[in-house]
Amino acid sequence: FVNRLGDARVPVAELVADPVQQAQQLALETGQLGAPHPKIPLPRDLFADLGAQSRLNSAGLNLAHEQQLAALAAGLLRGAQAVYAAAPGVVVVNPASTAPLNPVSADAAPVNPASASADGWQPVLNPADLRDQVGWARPATATEIELAVSRAARAAPAWQGTPPPQRAACLKRAADLLEQRRPGLLGLLVREAGKSLPNAIAEVREAVDFLRYYAAQVEATFDNATHRPLGVVLCISPWNFPLAIFTGQVAAALASGNCVLAKPAEQTPLIAAVMVNILHEAGVPPDAVQLLPGAGETVGAALVAHPLVAGVLFTGSTEVSRLIAQTLAQRLSPQGRPVALIAETGGQNALVADSSALAEQLVGDVLASSFDSAGQRCSALRLLCLQEDGAGRVVEMLKLAMDEWVIGHPGRLRTDVGPVIDAEARARIEQHIAAMQAAGQRVTRMGRDESGGQGYFVRPALIEIDRISRLQREVFGPVLHVLRYRREQLGSVLDAINATGYGLTFGVHSRIDATIAQVTQKVRAGNIYVNRNVIGAVVGVQPFGGMGLSGTGPKAGGPLYLYRLLQAGPTAGNQALAALPAKRKAADLPELPTLRALQSLLAGLNGPLLTACEAYRAHSALGQMFNLPGPTGESNRYQLLARGAVWAVPQSALGLAHQVAAALASGNACWLEAPAAGSAVAQALAALPPEVRAFVQLRSAAQLLGDTQLSAMLFEGDADALQAQLPRLAQRAGALMRVENLSAAQLAAGALYDLSALMHEQSISTNTAAAGGNAQLMTMG
Prior knowledge:
By secondary structure, the protein is of the alpha/beta class. A 10-stranded mixed β-sheet has the order 14-16-17-12-11-19-20-29-23-22, with helices on both faces. A hairpin with a 6-residue loop joins strand 22 and strand 23.
């Protein structure tokens, strides 16, 4: 009732009423003792009020509850005695016998240790204790890869013809099975991936959320008559989230009607094999999702280059994503379009804290963001920028607090920091720390080492640096860099962060609204966190993914992700946003400069040109802010931002109008090569209003290829002309370029370029309770 103190209409007697008596009265009225507030949903029902897309929240586990701990301990003990195996998810007849080598079973590993090496099996060891062999993995052979792709291609018509509610039902059953088998999954995550128990629990929950989120979206909004899948999709997942990201990729591809070739990280194939079995058990046909373990350089490369693969979902390094893009640029998809690539890559994630930040809260959030999961999260904090007023106190608090953290076996509850994934990762991290120390930067190693020396452990490091430019590439481990800045330098600090080219996660700690606004408006990052930690994005609450060198988009667990896995059609664009409640009304949008220019363009058009440009204005989500569901005390907002300059390649006046209108509707400038004198494009270009010409520039091909501000290409033409362009674009420096193509016939028939291809998604999560109390609870009637 704190909020009622300033309300003169509330009698004093009501303010000082006994809260126990009020709770008892509520119990009499509801018939429940200790009944929850009717406006505060229980955790399980957090997403139950979303209309057709309502879903159950994933179940957590209370590690302070003795009975739950006892059940967990029993499950972990059983899991520790199991030996798992992962093999290609196709049935292959052994030439020496008629018995098939069946896909992996988590219950009985079909491996003879005596002949395992000769049969191609490789041991999978526990990164926390190399004496513990978790299981065996056998990489896919070239024959198995070809067989798997052909089986997936044959199965594609039947799976894409399955009604969306039936596909969704399979995913929901898989989510239920995951929750039922959680103890065994937790044990495998701890042993194979070095996950601490809290991290393993969170990972199972995230996998469950992905399954239910995409199932709900497909069940509510998809129609096989209009939502046509790509066909065969390749999913390449990382080792740092071997269940959650693996499941998210596969679930999205399956939900949208694609058949999946799943290539897990070579370090963590076992949990992927268990997940594929669960999907099969839940009703997904065996040929619709197949496991293909192996190294990226062999199995992954062969799959990426296969002509029947129409889309690739990749999470990993920026360098590997560029190699994938260059391979895909050598061919078109079976539909004659660029092969779809969704890449979620690295980050140089930063957090800026000014002198108004609450030091105790800041220290807790920084430690969790930097060193949880041994710093092996895509979203992990790499750079902490502290205003020099009070920075010394914060750094000292960080060091003292971190010295209480325990480095050890992740299966123990007392452990805070587990191992890194392998010897190569450990060597890279230690080399970076040594190089920084040799360069004169102050290095402090922290934490209590109880690891026993049997695994790949790295003692966390805090490195005080003198400038941001010392960070040349992401260091994927428990290393935090700290930079001190003066208040007047905040703008240049933000510029330097943007100049790294990465844009995954960013945090700000401040009690000054003007500072928060300045920082969040200037930083280019896919996920921004205010007065909270910068890790642990929740599916559908904080859709996850970056911009620039940090990824192509769309965001995983967001409203646009499934649409990237469809062929172009009437479902493309921002129509998926229609169900979200916008905070800003559409009537306000013409105030934006590019939309004012689009309005000028509309004023001078008629016929098909006017119809096309009006459609882009109607579909634009520029300048709108959407509220996403989440827990009480937290605000989660979502918006789309201009992606960057658009390279327009028109062949007709209609094509130019489409491309300029699409660029303006998404907030971007439009660049193109000078058209031939007297051509229809030249005449249409000359007729553009002055307000529009301010956003349209003529440049040479060399200038266009060399400018890293370019973020997308809109192409009008045939497949051969498009194919000639793609390899050059893939060789460009900077962020990967999105290419959308439509032929003159498609444009004449009313097709539209996908506006979401020209925009970046951004999620902003704010701890609203950090401003001195939980305002939502205070004002709740």
